[in-house]
Amino acid sequence: MFLAEIFNSWQGEGGSIEGSAFGRRQIFVRFAGCDLRCIWCDSAGYILASNVPRWRYEVKPFTGKFEYKPNPAKLEEVVDVILKLDTGDIHSISYTGGEPTLQTKNLYALMERMHDLGFKNFLETNGSRPERVEEVAHLVDYASVDIKDETAKASKNWRELVLREVESIRILKKAGAKTYAKLVVTKDTKEENVRWYAELLKNLAPLAIQPKEPIDISQHQLMKLYNIAAKIMGRENVGLSFQVHKYLNVL
Ligand SMILES: C[S@@+](CC[C@H](N)C(=O)[O-])C[C@H]1O[C@@H](n2cnc3c(N)ncnc32)[C@H](O)[C@@H]1O
Ligand SMILES: Nc1nc2[nH]cc(C(=O)O)c2c(=O)[nH]1
Ligand code: SF4
Ligand SMILES: [Mg+2]
């Protein structure tokens, strides 16, 4: 499989929304390669798998010391690295990227293996390919599925993408995964678009609204978007999420 990095940290996103693992200790497996191009992506260096000839892994959690191995990574060496980073307090393994679901078979094999070893699986996905999500959904315990706002400019037809993301949420929920939606908002996010996302997510999954980093949206506008979503989805089903790991300078 084509990887970017493996490290041990605490989950910095999701806030207090149901299904979030915010503040839980995880081992993060970051896959290389993505099918979208969000303009604000903080992992942009890993979007093209061909630009990631080797992957890095922490030698010891929170030391900032890494070692490198060439891509493609072998399943057994990945499992070995994860087990060496296991501090005995791991809530779940986070599969992120890039886009983990693109490497469907590799993701399947790794999640199955981690389940067999007694770990829970947390999938962080852009949800752009419901048919691939469906293949692995039964192995997912927790899922954070992005809804890409128009201002992300993630793909040509953003409305179609949103509908596919919602379909991925439906599939994950049906398979029994605790699933929430994450919407990254910017100063240019339109209120009418948030209304539409909220209508789609109503009675389906809770929504974490996460300001793009570095934050450009005003607190006033952020709370306006929150209010719009909460009035449609219900006040228990909307919350804020900030990328806390960036403020605390951890991976
Ligand atoms: C790098 S993505 C990888 C997983 C998957 N490709 C996705 O987009 O959901 C992990 C999470 O980081 C968020 N993210 C990336 N760059 C960000 C930024 N500049 N500000 C806020 N959130 C960001 C994404 O929206 C996503 O929820
Ligand atoms: N601490 C920490 N929390 C995270 N939550 C989502 C992340 C990601 O990049 O997918 C991430 C990450 O890279 N680090
Ligand atoms: S989908 Fe995720 S990894 Fe891909 S460009 Fe967008 S934020 Fe980055
Ligand atoms: Mg990140």
From TrEMBL:
Mg(2+) binds at S43. The gene is queE. SUPFAM superfamilies: Radical SAM enzymes. The lineage of its organism: Archaea, Methanobacteriati, Methanobacteriota, Thermococci, Thermococcales. The keyword Lipoprotein does not apply. Its EC number is 4.3.99.3. Belongs to the radical SAM superfamily. 7-carboxy-7-deazaguanine synthase family. Its cofactor is [4Fe-4S] cluster; Mg(2+); S-adenosyl-L-methionine. [4Fe-4S] cluster binds at C34, C38, C41. Keywords: 4Fe-4S, Iron, Iron-sulfur, Lyase, Magnesium, Metal-binding, S-adenosyl-L-methionine. It catalyses: 6-carboxy-5,6,7,8-tetrahydropterin + H(+) = 7-carboxy-7-carbaguanine + NH4(+). Residues 21-251 form the Radical SAM core domain. GO terms for molecular function: 4 iron, 4 sulfur cluster binding; carbon-nitrogen lyase activity; magnesium ion binding; S-adenosyl-L-methionine binding. Homodimer. Pathway: Purine metabolism; 7-cyano-7-deazaguanine biosynthesis. This is 7-carboxy-7-deazaguanine synthase.
